[in-house]
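Sequence, please.
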């Protein structure tokens, strides 16, 4: 089942809550946090943080939009940012996809997220 960090938890906290049918942004955060070895709480911070965290957050925003089909406004609400910040993140990720290595990472994440979400849905249905 998908686990995500409670957004109001302290920065150092590892409190987790199970989500039965999470929005795409939650799935993107969970997957990107694992792949980039960044705490999910860091991706949800309102401050920019380190460059690696900022890039991981931008990729999660991009994936929530492209793979999850969420609107920029909905993604912005989830990340506590403006929709124009989400649009900038999407443009930035798109422009970096010219790098074959970066593109391959994003491509794999685009494949992983639906698999992860469907397994989470199946686990939630099994527990119900």
């Amino acid at each position: 089942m998908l686990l995500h960090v409670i957004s109001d938890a302290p920065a150092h906290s590892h409190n987790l809550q199970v989500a039965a049918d999470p929005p795409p942004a939650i799935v993107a955060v969970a997957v990107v946090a694992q792949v980039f070895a960044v705490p999910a709480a860091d991706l949800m911070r309102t401050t920019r943080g380190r460059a690696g965290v900022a890039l991981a957050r931008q990729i999660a925003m991009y994936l929530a939009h492209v793979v999850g089909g969420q609107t920029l406004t909905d993604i912005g609400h989830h990340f506590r940012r403006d929709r124009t910040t989400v649009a900038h993140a999407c443009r930035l990720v798109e422009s970096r996809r010219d790098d074959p290595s970066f593109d391959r990472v994003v491509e794999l994440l685009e494949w992983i997220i639906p698999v992860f979400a469907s397994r989470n849905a199946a686990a939630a249905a099994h527990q119900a």
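The radius of gyration is 14 Å.
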